[in-house]
Amino acid sequence: MKKPFIFKLLIDLVYYYFFAGIVGVFVIFPFLYFILGNPKIELVGVETSLESLTFMHWSIILFGSITYILFFKGLYHLRKVARFLLSKKFFSLTTIQNLNTSGTYFLYSSILYFTVLVISFTFKIFKGHINLSFNTTTTLPILIAIIGLFFILQSKVLKIAKVYKEDNELTI
Amino acid sequence: MAIIINLDVVLAKRKMRSKELAKMIGITTANLSILKSGKAKAIRFSTLDAICEALDCQPGDILEYVLEK
User: Fold this and answer.
1) Shortest Cα distance, chain B CAs vs residue A108, angstroms
2) Angle at the Cα of B54 from the Cα atoms of B52 and B59, rounded to 5 degrees
3) Residue B29: is its pLDDT beyond 70?
4) Does B40 sit within 8 Å of A170, measured CB to CB?
């Protein structure tokens, strides 16, 4: 079965990509600040610099960071699910619990990401910029919410299937 | 569960071993053991039919209902 292998590989790639992002923020960014001085940064389409951060910017940073961490935790639990699927433990309680947890984290991260988008949109309006566009920026939180909810529902389905499987195994 | 399996009693009367019965009815000794120990949640009619045929008995000889208090 190649699909579980490819599934795990892709999740691992995304997981390490996001991990590199965390390393980048906490290690590289302060390093660049001391070399470049006051670099310009872009927060969800809102341009600013480190020395001119307002309350709006800080709220974007705060919510954005929490979103990132929640999504990263969702990926962490999804990696566990992928590992169990690879070893064909489809109806294991660990698989079910991790799938449910992963879905919950994805759902919360999508809600917070949507909040970040609303804050940045509001900020841009106050600055006099209105940019209405049909792209993945607005649909991404909805997609992540759909994926999260699907994982939660799938974990419930697996839980029911586990009961049927055990009943069937104890049916002589 | 209130249903008791008296398979051991019938096997003893027929002087048959569990392994023999399992082979005759086409189930594993592990599954027969689950049935005998009362851990089974259900029994198929086809399995009950095969057991009764192999042991020449009635379902009532194997299955007993005891009211749980």
Assistant:
1) 40
2) 10
3) yes
4) yes
| Cβ contact A95:A84 at 8 Å | yes
pTM of the predicted protein model = 0.80
pLDDT tens by residue, A118-151 = 888 888 887 777 766 677 777 899 999 999 999 9
Is the separation of the CB atoms in A50 and A33 below 8 Å?
Answer: yes
Which among B35, B41, B43 is the nearest to A167, CB-wise? B41
As given in the structure block, the two tokens for residue A89 are 């433990």
> Do residue A172 and residue B39 have CB atoms under 8 angstroms apart?
no
From the CA of A158, how many Å to the nearest CA of chain B?
20
In tens, the pLDDT along B53-63 reads 999 999 999 99
Contact B40 A167 (CB under 8 A): no
- For residue B43, list chain A residues with Cβ-Cβ distance below 8 A: 171-172
ipTM exceeding the 0.90 mark: no
Residues of A in contact with B27 (CB under 8 A): 172
Between residues 148 and 167 of chain A, which touch chain B (CB distance below 8 Å)? 167
Least confident of A31-35, A164-168, B25-29, B36-40: A31-35
Q: Tokens representing B49?
A: 């039919």
Distance from CA of A9 to the nearest CA of B (A): 39
The answer to whether residues A146 and A90 touch, using CB atoms and an 8 Å cutoff, is no
**CA Rg value for chain B:** 11
- In the chain, the amino acid numbered A168 is N
Separation CA A60–CA A138 (nearest Å): 16
